[in-house]
Amino acid sequence: MVDVIVFAVGAVVVMGGAIGVVLNPNPVRAALSLVASFFGVAVLFVLQEAHFLAFIQVVVYAGAIVVLFLFVIMLLGVDSSDDLSVQPLVGQRLAGVGVGIAVLVLLLAGLFMSGPGGEKGTVAFTGAQSSTAAISSDHPDVNQLAVDLFTRNVLAFQATALLLTIATVGAVVMVKERGATPKATIEQDETN
Amino acid sequence: MEVTQTWYLVLSAMLFSVGLVGLLIRNNPLVMFMCVELMLNASNLSFVAFSGVYNDIAGQTAVFFVLVVAAAEVVVGLSIVVALMRIRPAATADDLTALKG
């Protein structure tokens, strides 16, 4: 029963934050709605006993990615409200909502239409239980995640480390000021 | 009544479609990026739900990698946005038509 209540609260926060991101004209408020949505997802992770992932979700998504968004919004000064009633193509908003509803119906149909033995109304879980990386309840989930990550997926792990380095270097290169003379330094500003 | 994995999958589908609608409707590049993050979160929810169904830790490993790649993607995407906005301030996604044929 407590699980149902926690799931309901988490689901409301997640969907409320998501709808807030979509409908808010002000980008800063949209970013804060995004934070709320991420916290809701972290609560749902905890409910599924993925505690390490909940922690990483809060630290990386809510704590780094959204902060990066807010930095860029404040840096560029684009925090003025958008005009949501402007649509470049006629009927774009309606078509967008229609496509979203169609995708949702498609996903739910795919989920419920074929069960494991082909029965309708049951959810389509078609695989088998794991034999190599089964979760056991006597070890913490972070230990099992670490074992899986550093034994079976160590190549992907190294590749993501390389990816992060490349992304950081690329970001620095892309936002670097071009030209031979650097911008005015603090000493020059102080003498003015 | 018990919370089964189906509930998480339905919620993930709803979150994904809300992110999709936002991506299609909004024209501010930063808000469009936020809607992409919503869709990635929906897929993370799905992964963890399936990890519980099949009792397999590989679902949580996949979430770990999705998180890392999403962080790298945000870094690169926001630097692109900054570089673009520096040249054309207050550009929306509809104004960025330099590559149009």
Task: Describe it.
Chain A is an all-alpha fold and 192 residues long. Chain A has 3 domains: 1-81, Up-down Bundle (Four Helix Bundle (Hemerythrin (Met), subunit A)), CATH 1.20.120.1200; 94-122; 139-181. Chain A contains 7 helices and no strands. Chain A has helices at residues 2-23, 27-47, 51-76, 92-112, 141-152, 154-175, 186-191. Chain A is globular and about 55 Å long. The mean pLDDT of chain A is 84. Chain B contains 3 helices and no strands. Chain B is elongated, with a radius of gyration of 17 Å. Helix content of chain B is 75%, strand content 0%. Chain B has one domain (5-87): Helix Hairpins (Orthogonal Bundle). The chains are: A mainly alpha (192), B mainly alpha (101). The interface between A and B is large, with 85 and 71 residues.
Question: What are the SSEs and their pairings?
Answer:
The complex is a heterodimer of chains A (192) and B (101).
Chain A: H1 2-23, H2 27-47, H3 51-76, H4 92-112, H5 141-152, H6 154-175, H7 186-191
Helix pairs in contact in A: 1-2, 2-3
Chain B: H1 5-25, H2 29-53, H3 58-87
Helix pairs in contact in B: 1-2, 2-3
Amount of helix of chain A: 55-70%
Strand-residue fraction of chain B? under 5%
Largest sheet properties of chain A:
none
Q: Determine the CATH superfamily of the largest domain in chain A.
A: NADH-ubiquinone/plastoquinone oxidoreductase chain 6, subunit NuoJ
Query: How much of the polypeptide of chain A forms β-strand, as a percent range?
Result: under 5%
Report the total helices of chain B.
Answer: 3
Shape of chain A: globular
CATH architectural name of chain B: Orthogonal Bundle
Uncertain parts of chain B: none
- What is the number of helices of chain A? 7
Flag low-confidence runs of chain A. Answer: none
Please indicate the count of domains of chain A: 3
Summed up, the domain count of chain B is 1
Helix and strand content put the structural class of chain A at mainly alpha
Which class of the largest domain in chain A in CATH terms? Mainly Alpha
Q: Briefly note the CATH topology name of chain B.
A: Helix Hairpins
